[in-house]
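Wed. Picked up where I left off yesterday with PilZ domain-containing protein. The coffee machine is broken again, so keeping this brief.
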Amino acid sequence: MLKLTYTESSFDLECVTLSLEEWVAQRVILALRVGQSLCIEPTTASFLLPVDLPGVEVLRAEVKRDDREIIALCACDAEYMEVTLRGSWLSDSSKDSVGVFVTTMSDRAEFFLHKLWQEAQEISASVMSE
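Structure written out below (C-alpha cells, as returned):
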C-alpha cells in the first residue's frame, strides 16, 4: 500500500506493508478510541516527478501494463510529469487539505513509484543546498 501524507507545509510518500483494509481499519479504531472525527472518501491524489529521472520509462511501461487504471501519468511541461493515483482520502473532514491518501497497486509498482519519489526528493534536496 502507498500512503501519501499531506500536512500544511509538506507531503510525504511511503510504502506500508499492511493491506489497505488493515491500515484503514486500524485508523478507524484509533479515531473511535480517541474521539476524533474521521472522513473517508474515494478520490485522487497527484504529485510531480522530474521527466528526466532515471527509471521514468520503466514507470510508464508499468502504467501501461496495469489495466486497473489506479495510476495515470501526464506531461506537465518539459521538466515535470504529474502522477495521479486513485484511492481514498482520510481526514478530519471532507474539506480538509491535511490528511492521508492511501492506495494499493501491484507491489512492484508501489515499490518502484516510491523509489522514484525518493530519488526526486534527493535531487531536489541537493539542488536546494547548492
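Quick read: The longest helix spans residues 107-129.
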